[in-house]
Specification:
By secondary structure, the protein is α+β, with helices and mostly antiparallel strands. Helix content is about 55%, strand content about 20%. The strands form 5 sheets. Strands 3-4-2-17 form a 4-stranded antiparallel β-sheet. Helix 10 links the parallel strand 13 and strand 14. The chain starts with a helix and ends with a helix.
Length: about 525
Amino acid sequence: MARKKGIKALLLNWRVLLLIIFLIGSIAAIAVNGLTYGIDIGGGVALIAKPDRPLSGEEVDGIASSLQNRLNTFGLKDISVETQHDPETGETLFVVKVANVTLDEAKQIKSLIESQGVLYMELDGVVFARGSDVTVYSSNYGLDLQRCPTCWYVGFTLSGDSLKKFNELKKGKAGWPVDIFLDPPVNSLIVVSDRVYSTMQDFLGEPVSGTPKPLIQRIGEAFNITVVKYENQSAGELVKNATSLGKDTIIVVDLPEELYTKVKNELLQSNLGVRVSYYSPQQGEDPKSFVARILHLYGPYVLSAEVVEGDSNSFQLTGSAATKEEALQEAKRIYSVLRSGSLPTKLGVISEEYISPTLGSSFKKQALIAGLGALIAVLLAIYFHYRRWKLAIPVASTSLFEVIIILGMASLIRWNLDLPSIAGIIAAIGTGVDQQIVITDELLGRSSAEGVSRRMGLLRRMARAFFVILASATTTIVAMSFLLFYFVGTLKGFAVTTILGVLIGVLITRPAYAEIAKYLLSLE
């Protein structure tokens, strides 16, 4: 009878009751919300992007926010956009992690990051609108099946001065081409083959009257793009031509890749800060589509008589792809870039790591085995130390409860569990066991004195044990806080779960274990 009363008193003890409440709440949180995993467990992609130029603090915050919005608009979840500094150069880098994506989605994410998102609309060599003049309404994109089975569109409207400027430019230009560009190669020298040069002289639309300027002239006046036909110039001559014109980039198009390599080496040796890129036609790609891809050109669109005479402010970006799925993905990408706004500078992805969901699943199993192995090791170690199952089982059970509560908290805050986070949980188990041993040793060292003196001795020993525990927890939290606030990436996950485990131990599981251990030892 006395034993039953003792168990009832133990269960109603506020420290044990608090443990039970948190345990039930954590199990419920995991059941309802589930657990979210980082890329090394759930699969995903981690990309490191570097800006083209040094950034101010305000620009860094703006780019991080725009990237987050862009990826959210694209429909991705479990996104992390962080900043860090290159330890060698001090430059700002952007670390983008997206969990639970396929390889194709990973490629789309890279494209989204590298798209600066600067939109230009040009007529007769005059830019009349930029991205800030464009409004893109929610879900105004999709497949344009009336044009072709794999055609896509993204709709938008113009407003303010841009619309006024367009209305002035379009007068008398029925049938003339309107060019729309997204991230065109501004201030570049484009070296092309004879056939590409001939194609770029076209794009004239269907003029009712007058003669539109050829595309080469239009992009030259609008974006300071110089197009030259390759006539056996040496790499040195091309570099000299680009530097004399003050160009930022040399683009080698539809020419032997050997020429691109020579130009690249020439630029590396001269250290001029000019970039170089290379384009070749894809299989089955027609000349006009190839030119449009080089220039990031959408269109050109022919001005109908209705548009010239009317006052509509609605436009569309259109294009096509090999399949319906690819067409929809392209429309979604353009829509995401336009909705999120342009970045103050272009980003280049310098590192990418993709982990497939299948490989991540195997990591999850290994992490589970490691966790169970740690708990079994704790159980056996405590038993061999004290030779009492009534102490070994509560210690191991308390560690298990601690893990469940940590996972419940992670589920509530939607923290992505990665391998370092799980390592932090295992580290917290080890720290917790040490502290439970301190409590147990103090309880076992109780005096044989009776009455008040015995109780006072126990209270002193418990106070001494918890002083040691609090001191240990404080130093651990301080050390982990440094990792949490001054580092990004894997160390952050380790720090979060370690701090969470220490706090849960000190505030919930350690006091409850002390009460349980006191009750069990009192039965001897």
